[in-house]
User: Which sequence fits this backbone?
């Protein structure tokens, strides 16, 4: 049975490159120093629903291995995202506030100031407009691994899940370089985030009973070896 998460979203009202439709923006940022718990750079906050390493390994062992499915019939519109969360806020704004520091919002719930650290590449930002909200397991990847059989409401829940580590504020460049690729095809440039990335990816796929390919599972296994013992 598929577990439905709370409503949420991905990046800005723009899309992603390649198969997931993400454009390539120009981003200005500075390097963040240091690495914190869960392999996250700097002072970033813990994502919701993160498993322990042992749980992630058990979840990975339990995932069904299958070849990637077809993209036939796929479109991002089949995963309604940036859903309303009440008080004029949508999922994007909720994640920006959750993942940022000292975030202030206007009367329409838009982040107008704050600071953000991109887990994927250690870049820091002081403008919410420079941030994308990434789906840890991309919508197109989910489609190829089982979401093509879901209802629209199930896909909406997946695209707006604020309960599990499926949504994360990251730099637009890293998000759009990732596109719809699985970990064996793209991994965060910041290798100190590989542990948390593999934990996040694995628990999301386990929660939604999505499949993994052989290469994907092998890479996730390798990434979990970077976790602290």
Assistant:
């Amino acid at each position: 049975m598929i577990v439905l998460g709370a409503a949420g979203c991905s990046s800005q009202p723009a899309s992603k490159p390649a198969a997931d439709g993400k454009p390539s923006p120009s981003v200005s940022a500075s390097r963040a120093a240091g690495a914190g718990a869960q392999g996250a750079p700097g002072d970033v906050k813990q994502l919701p629903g993160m498993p322990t390493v042992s749980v992630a390994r058990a979840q990975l062992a339990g995932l069904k291995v299958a070849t990637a499915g077809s993209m036939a019939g796929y479109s991002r519109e089949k995963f309604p995202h940036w859903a309303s969360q009440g008080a004029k806020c949508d999922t994007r704004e909720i994640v920006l506030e959750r993942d940022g520091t000292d975030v202030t919002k206007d009367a329409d719930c838009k982040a107008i100031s704050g600071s953000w650290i991109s887990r994927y590449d250690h870049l820091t930002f002081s403008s919410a407009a420079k941030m994308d909200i990434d789906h840890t397991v991309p919508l197109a990847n989910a489609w190829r691994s089982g979401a093509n059989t879901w209802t629209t409401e199930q896909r909406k829940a997946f695209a707006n899940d604020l309960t599990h580590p499926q949504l994360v504020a990251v730099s637009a460049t890293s998000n759009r370089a990732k596109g719809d690729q699985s970990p064996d095809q793209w991994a965060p440039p910041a290798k100190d985030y590989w542990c948390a990335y593999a934990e996040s990816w694995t628990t999301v796929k386990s929660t939604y009973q999505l499949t993994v390919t052989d290469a994907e599972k092998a890479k996730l296994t390798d990434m979990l070896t970077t976790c602290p013992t």
Confidence is low (pLDDT under 50) at residues 3-42.
